[in-house]
Amino acid sequence: MQTIEALDVKGRRVLVRADLNVPLDGDVITDDGRIRASVPTISALASRGARVIVCAHLGRPKGKVAPQFSLAPVAARLGELLGHPVAFASDVVGDSARATVEGLGDGEVALLENLRFEPGEESKDDALRGAFADELAALAELYVGDGFGAVHRKHASVYDVPKRLPHAAGGLVVAEVEVLKKLTEDPARPYVVVLGGAKVSDKLGVIANLLGKVDRLIVGGGMAYTFLKAQGHEVGKSLLQEDQLEQVSGFIAEADKRGVELVLPVDILAATTFAEDAPHDVVEATAIPADREGLDIGPKTRELFASKLADAATVFWNGPMGVFEFEAFSGGTRAVAEALVASGAFTVVGGGDSAAAVRKLGLPEDGFSHISTGGGASLEYLEGKTLPGLAALED
Ligand code: ADP
Ligand code: MG
């Protein structure tokens, strides 16, 4: 992969695909981690005299203009972080975008409106996607792929535009790939993976692949209940993916066969409802009452998981241990995060919610070796899949 240092950018229009998909509450950005992670590449290009055109997506507007998904608040925050105002185009490839690009001087930065307002961006139809990529590419002379969180998507701005312009990988993509390579090629051992979060089905592929690589797999969060159920325990009203039970049973058997230590919760915070202030009790993981739902791992599990992380040399963590958005159910996630910091291992946190949890809980970001900006992208890399956005930058 060619890096930005190899591009002659002075006075030239450079389209930077960034990942600025931040959580919003109304028009207030609640976690600006992805914007901050995008700043170094943008400012490096600007300081070399490039006319920087940033493009990105926000949320899932599904090909239609939807004001609640406007990138306008992001343009303002990006400007603050760069220390220079960022010109904002009110469309993606229309009159406003063209005029905004036209008005850019050397070293200036513009942001286009949400790419996903355009149906071509995510289209599965190559011709539709290609036509939109043509319009996007026409705005610039060079392309920089730096939106690591989106490199697993075969989208116009990620996959098709770099086929149309001379291109390079931005510093964020280079750094992310370097870390993931370390995890896949020759990780220091013991290599421990901690998985949690809500979406079991999203994470099955990575489990299948990791069982051949890791020494220990710790499962918490909403995922754990499908594992407990597969072992024959009732899980009450807890998150459960009935249709994944068979596959999860297969993983449990496979872990045993391969000598991978599988660590599951032994106690649970079982709540009466899914709410911030829900009454709850600590129960054994094997005895969750029928009318309760598990919203966090219990105190014995926190100690158990910490002890299973203490001797690790490499740790990859994806997915919160509980509903950390609710203060009362954030303790398990905090305990695991603190155990990572204390371990002295090479520690990688992947996943939008996991990274947001680290920051929300006020843990020191520099206590981790790497906090990835990409959840799906890092998981798919670890699965061994070819990521379209990386493949396009290789050619
Ligand atoms: P990431 O974005 O880090 O990959 P996910 O998106 O898979 O993580 O999962 C994050 C979500 O999982 C959080 O919103 C959290 O509230 C939820 N979650 C974690 N544990 C539970 C649980 N026991 N029950 C319901 N939801 C949970
Ligand atoms: Mg998530």
From TrEMBL:
This is Phosphoglycerate kinase. Its EC number is 2.7.2.3. It comes from the Bacteria. The keyword Kinase applies. GO terms for molecular function: ADP binding; ATP binding; phosphoglycerate kinase activity. Substrate binds at residues 19-21, 34, 57-60, 116, 153. CDD domains: Phosphoglycerate_kinase. It comes from Sphaerisporangium melleum. Keywords: ATP-binding, Cytoplasm, Glycolysis, Kinase, Nucleotide-binding, Transferase. (2R)-3-phosphoglycerate binds at residues 34, 116, 153. The gene is pgk. It catalyses: (2R)-3-phosphoglycerate + ATP = (2R)-3-phospho-glyceroyl phosphate + ADP. Belongs to the phosphoglycerate kinase family. It is found in: Cytoplasm. PROSITE patterns: PGLYCERATE_KINASE (PS00111). InterPro entries: Phosphoglycerate_kinase, Phosphoglycerate_kinase_CS, Phosphoglycerate_kinase_N, Phosphoglycerate_kinase_sf. ATP binds at residues 203, 294, 325, 351-354. Pathway: Carbohydrate degradation; glycolysis; pyruvate from D-glyceraldehyde 3-phosphate: step 2/5. Monomer. One of its GO terms (biological process) is glycolytic process. The lineage of its organism: Bacteria, Bacillati, Actinomycetota, Actinomycetes, Streptosporangiales. The keyword Magnesium does not apply. Its main location: cytoplasm. It is an enzyme of class 2 (transferase).
